[in-house]
Task: structure prediction
Amino acid sequence: MSEGRSHKTRLIDRRALLGASAAAGTAALAAPALAQDGATIEWKMVTSWPKNLPGPGVTARRIADSIGRMSGGRLRVRLFAAGELVPALGVFDAVSAGTAQMAHTASFFWQGKIPAAVYFTAIPFGLLPHEHISWIEQGGGQALWDELYAPFGLKPVMAGNTGVQMGGWYKREITGLDDLRGLKIRMPGLGGEVMRRLGATPVSLPPGELFQALQSGVLDATEFLGPWSDRAMGFHKVASSYYSPGFHEPNGTGEALFNQVALEGLPEDLRAIVLEACRAENGRSLAESDWENAGALRLLQERDGVTVLPYPDDVMTALRETSAKVLADFADKDALGRRIHDSQQAALSRLSPWSDVAMRRFMAARDGERPARRD
Result:
């Protein structure tokens, strides 16, 4: 490639190459979908989760089972947990290349590859689960998500939700900003960048490696999901301070990735079944996560001796102010990223006042408090 070629030309060439590679790599995978009526189609689903992990691992299994059941066995999905076919963080490339037809994962894992992908899981102080679903389905979020992944030959959709997240597990108590300096913490997405600017050292690790890293001292702190999944991972055995709120992930949207050629090669009814199985899981998993998190939180506190703590006021203020700066800087990386950022911020501006009137005030009233006026 000559030095004189423009960045735009190189980008177009790269996208064309990716598209051609995806098409070539998946033609064989899509072919069974065109077989005669009654033929069984076999798909592979790779995931970023340990097998049957409470929360996203359970969701992935349920989606695979639902597709088989609703299709009457015409489409069977074989599930591979993290590391069984490809590494936990290799599922994006695997589905893009055609190694598997679909994946279950989370979009913030692709921040290094596609920075704006983080918006489709969560951003610091962003949308709550019901607000995020509203943005994707009603506010133009899905079209932007499709556009972002199209160069990789992928179709993304929401596929489950682990709800509002916790702030993480810390091996020592956080009493102020000084305690963040030099702290080795696993916190993916933009929350990790917020922590870095406050002096911490973010460490990127897949979910299956977190317990050992925390136990061995590779990590001083880690966040993952909520009490249900976190307790199953055993974090309470090596860290007793559990912080909230999860400022970095107010929403826990799971991501299903489909190889575009394979998906479009399905008969129309099977394609609808695949997409609806994912969509149905959004409500089911959110209800399950809220219920199980409540029970697991009680066990952590009453049986396991875990102390649930709020971030100190000065830390919370710094997190909020730094998050605003990180988002402002991040939005200027590229034109599509700016459009995604602006779209989500517009959704937040539209939905937040309604959430305040409908939810915040009700919860205050339910608890016998008088809500502050927010005119």
